[in-house]
Amino acid sequence: MNLADILKDSNYKLSQFTAAEIEQLEQSITLKTTKSDEVPYIICLVRQKAIKLTPEEAIRQLYLQVLNERLHYPFSRIQVEYGVNFGREVKRADIVVMDKDRPNTVYMIVELKKPKLKDGKDQLRSYCNATGAPIAICPNCDQISYYQRKDPNYFEDIPGLPNANQTLADILQIKFTLEDLIANDKLIKENKSLKTLIEEMEDKVLANAGVDVFEELFKLIFTKLYDEWYSGQGNRRKTRSLEFRNTGQTEAALKTKIQDLFDGAKKKWEGVFSEDAKISLTPSHLSVCVSSLENVKLFNSNLDVIDEAFEYLINQSSKGEKGQFFTPRYVIDMCVKMLNPQEDEYMIDTAAGSSGFPVHTIFHVWRQILVDEGLQASHLFSLEDKPPRCKEYVEEKVFAIDFDEKAVRVARTLNLIAGDGQTNILHLNTLDYELWNEVTEQEEWDNVYNAGFKRLKRLRPKGSKDFREFQFDVLMANPPFAGDIKEPRMIARYDLAKKPDGKWQNKVGRDILFIERNLDFLKPGGRMAIVLPQGRFNNSSDKNIRDFIAERCRILAVVGLHGNTFKPHTGTKTSVLFVQKWNDDPKAGALCPRRDDYNIFFATMRKSGKDNSREKMWRKISSSTSPPDDELSELMPPSPMQRVVGVEGDFLQDVHGHLVVDHDLYNHEGLTEDGIAEAFIEFAKKEKLSFFESSPSVTPFDAVRYQQLMDGLEAAAVNFHRVCYENEEFRIDSEYYHPLHLVYESLVTAKEHDRLGKLCNLIAGPFGSTVTTDNYVEDEEFRYIRGKDVQDFFLDDSDPVYVERNLFDSLSREHPSFLQRGGKSVRISK
Question: What is the DSSP letter of 501?
Answer without folding.
Answer: T
